[in-house]
Amino acid sequence: MADFHQNGNIATIHNLRTTTDEDLTRELVTFANTRKISLILPSLYSELEGEALPNILKELAQVPYLHRIIIGLDRADEAQYRHARDFFSVLPQNHVVIWNDSPRMLEIQRRLNDLGLAPNEPGKGKNVWSCLGFLIACADTAVVAIHDCDIVTYDREMLSRLVYPVANPNFPYQVAKGYYARIGSGKINGRVSRMLVSPLLIALKRVIGDRDYLDFLRAFRYPLSGEFAMRTSILPDLRIPSDWGLEIGVLSEAWRNLAPKSVCQVEISDAYDHKHQELSPEDKSKGLSRMSIDICKAVFRKLAADGTVFNEEVFRTLKATYYRSALDLLDSYYNDARMNGLYVDRHQEEAAIEMFAENIIAAGHVFLDNPAETPFIPTWNRVHSADPDLMADMLKAVAADLREYGI
After folding, report:
1. Left, alpha or beta for 17 (phi > 0: left; psi -120 to 50: alpha)?
2. C-alpha separations of 239 from 12, 245, 250 in Å
3. pLDDT tens-digit profile of 179-191?
4. DSSP tag of 226
5. How far apart are CA 70 and CA 215, in angstroms?
6. In degrees, to the nearest 5, what angle opens at C-alpha 168 toward C-alphas 39 and 1?
7. Nearest C-alpha neighbor of 97 from the set 68, 62, 137, 136
8. Which end of the chain is less crowded, N or C, counting CB atoms within 10 A of the terminal residue's CB?
9. Are strands 187-188 and 11-13 parallel, antiparallel or unpaired?
10. Which superkingdom is the protein from (predicted)?
């Protein structure tokens, strides 16, 4: 049985196992009559060849309340785009595959480049941002959910539980963040959240002092989950990073733009697992090494925007404080795992902590060496102001791609 603890910063919507997905779905169908619900799936073409996505589509095909599914397809050529169209055609809902690398979409990118408004680098953040722009241009959705395409334990109740808090018109929530226990194959997973983000937030509080923003982030049980639901009214002013800092960036925007009572976290799964990234300690441009740097940069940028002063001494102190905090948490995770019959490889966990500690310094150097860097993709309100025709032209580009490159 789940607990029913509330942390006092944001609302936590638990799964007390006292209702069913059928009950939630019936209510969501009713809500969707007047508050249309859409889903965004940011996908690499390679994920079409994995084990997770076929089951995700099988589950989604049974969801009756979705108005539209938007698939953002990255790293695909023409033949792969055609295959993706066929692959996603099993979905009975209105759906669209946006070929982000098509000549027409690259022309949209060129226009953004000419305006100085293009995302700085490819990645999940850019993909999600483009899909959000498409959704805003459609102007027919009240609620949007986002989740990854590599969830190997996916079932449709995850989506029902994710969207319910923001779809229910009697609830005040503008943003819902999914959470769950990351366990699988007899062990505790989620190293970046457990061994980087949690001890980093503890260390930051010790080094720079109390900040409401840090308390806000610490209130989330799984701040790096890729599952969000939002009311679409907040999307035009949403600023997000284009890199692996997307999840922290969205939470930071919720903190900046919304009252805490408008944000909740919701338990969406008892057993969640997805594709695991390599640690990649030898290459900071790949795997969890790059992810950890991007996440640290996202947190540092937000704190700096709120007036925190960073320098070399602060980052050196932060590294040492983080390291001690992470080792202390490792003891807790190890004991928790043992009592639940799960496995924790202390050597591998400590190796990850050592890499994350070094990457705190690396992220600090990037932050200090690039004071003029624009950390966020521009808002869609700004894009529309600079080029009022671009969003409509994006809709036309996607439609033209669908006509020209048929299955």
Report:
1. left
2. 24, 12, 8
3. 998 888 888 999 9
4. S
5. 34
6. 90
7. 68
8. N
9. unpaired
10. Bacteria
pLDDT in tens, 124-170: 889 999 999 999 999 999 999 999 999 999 999 999 999 999 999 99
Cβ proximity of 93 and 121 under 8 Å: no
Tokens 């953002």, located at residue: 72
Instruction: Name the residue type at position 368.
Output: L
CB proximity list for 39: less than 8 A, separation 6 or greater: 60, 66, 68, 69, 70, 144, 145, 146, 147, 159
Phi, psi of 266 (to 5 degrees): -135, 135
pLDDT in tens, 291-342: 899 899 989 988 998 899 999 999 999 999 999 999 999 999 999 999 999 9
Distance CA 345, CA 353 (A): 12
* Residue of 278, 273, 300, 276 whose CA lies nearest to 289: 278
In the predicted model, what is the mean pLDDT of residues 9-16? Answer: 95
Q: Which two tokens stand for residue 224?
A: 């790096």
Interatomic CA distance for residues 358 and 25, integer angstroms: 46
Burial 275-289 (b: 16+ CB within 10 A, else e): eeeebbbeebeebbb
Sign of CA dihedral 120, 132, 196, 191: negative
| Average of per-residue pLDDT across 256-283 | 84
What Rg do the C-alpha atoms of the chain give, in angstroms? 21
